[in-house]
Amino acid sequence: MARLRMRVPQALTAFALISLVIPAQSLFFYLDAGAPKCFFEELPKDTLVVGHYSAEEFNAQSGAYEANPQLGINIWVDEAFDNDHRVVNVKGATKGSFTFSAAESGEHKLCFTAISTAHNAGWTAGSLGAVKLSLDMAIGTTSDIESSDKGKIQDIVQKVKDLNGRLLDIKREQMFQRAREAEFRDQSESTNSRVVRWTLLQLAVLGITCAWQLSHLRAFFIKQKLT
User: Fold this and answer.
1) Which of 50, 73, 118, 119 supports an S-S bond with 138, CB 3.0-4.6 Å?
2) CB atoms within 10 A of CB 135
């Protein structure tokens, strides 16, 4: 593949240079179908670059750029100071990210190419400005970005701990409710058992009383006949 060494417009170049001081930058540009577009960054040693991108394809029917899941982006980063030694080669989807760290100080070339995963894609035949690529890059020293990442991770860890604490509270509450339910069930069973025993005792007393009364009446009637 032929090398395409193209400088972006002056405004984009200025934006890229400012990124050496400002830790993040956002920009967008247009890609011709199948043609790479590159820009250059002068990076000090141990500089970490984290990029997030999203691509949209021009829809002739609506006259607007829209997301297309069949659209892909190829990304590669070469060390221009070292005979274009390639340090990144990513074939991504419509949305994605890439990360690399500058091993040595010097000029790095970042290139992007739009591709289509659909068979017989018609727009690849020389469509100009067919794809709009939005790019957000965080550029800084590895320690700065790592410290920022550690801060985010610590926030996430703290949130996880809070969630775990709430889950433990819910679990304790559930165990307490289960204990109360078990106690209530035991009391209900004990009460039902006492009621059954008392009922049986009452029936026994009534049976004995009825038998005694019948026996007494029988003896009374027999005595009356004899007299």
Assistant:
1) 50
2) 19
Each residue of 201-220: pLDDT tens digit? 999 999 999 988 888 888 77
Which has the closest alpha carbon to 55: 43, 41, 37?
Answer: 37
Three-class DSSP category at 137: strand
Residue 50 main-chain phi, psi, to 5 deg: -120, 120
What distance in Å separates the CA atoms of residue 30 and residue 212, rounded to the nearest whole number? Answer: 111
Among left, alpha and beta (phi > 0; psi -120 to 50; other), residue 92 is beta
Q: What is the pLDDT of residues 142-157, one digit of tens each?
A: 555 555 556 677 778 7
pTM over 0.85: no
Cβ neighbours of residue 163 under 8 Å, at least 6 residues apart? none
- For residue 32, which phi and psi values (nearest 5 degrees)? -80, 150
